[in-house]
From TrEMBL:
PANTHER family to which the protein is assigned, alphabetical: STRESS RESPONSE PROTEIN NHAX (PTHR46268), UNIVERSAL STRESS PROTEIN UP12 (PTHR46268:SF6)
Species this protein is from: Haloarcula pellucida
Protein name stated in the entry: Universal stress protein UspA
InterPro entries xrefs: Rossmann-like_a/b/a_fold, Universal_stress_UspA, UspA
Pfam families in the record: Usp (PF00582)
Residue ranges of domain UspA in the record: 1-164
Family in the record: Belongs to the universal stress protein A family.
Amino acid sequence: MYDRILFPTDGSPGAKAAMNQTIDLASLCGATVHVLYVADSENEVSHMVMRDDDTGFSGMVKPDEIERESGMTETGSGRMDELEAAGTKLVAAAADVFADHDVETVTSVRRGNPYRAIIDYAEDADVDLVVMPTHGRRGIDRFLLGSVTEKVVRSADVPVLTVRLQEGSEDS
């Protein structure tokens, strides 16, 4: 049914929930999972980086929090390099989790507008399905931040499975 599944991730708890669904689907279908991280070069609000820990899934923090903790004050391309480095660690950690479940992966880190990069990657890699988290933002947050998942759902030429983190789950 599915040979190539795209799993775009930002390392959030919602992404973990989507990863679990992706593992199940890929195992069932024998599919290869394409793990994608997009360093958002267009929106300062979403410039988040992974706090480094053993699993690579400890959560996202704003770069200014890293700067306060580390004394680093990189901006512009330095910040994008930092985001790409964090994304590289994130997709590698995700690939390790998939490997633990005998799921083959391809990893990629790209720069750009996240929803556009996801759509472009899906077309370039000829994926059959995209699995994404939905964060359940409402009201002004959704208006201001937009929804990458919503834009992908509306624009993708392939099916998009959205996975919502359940309220009260231990990952929230």
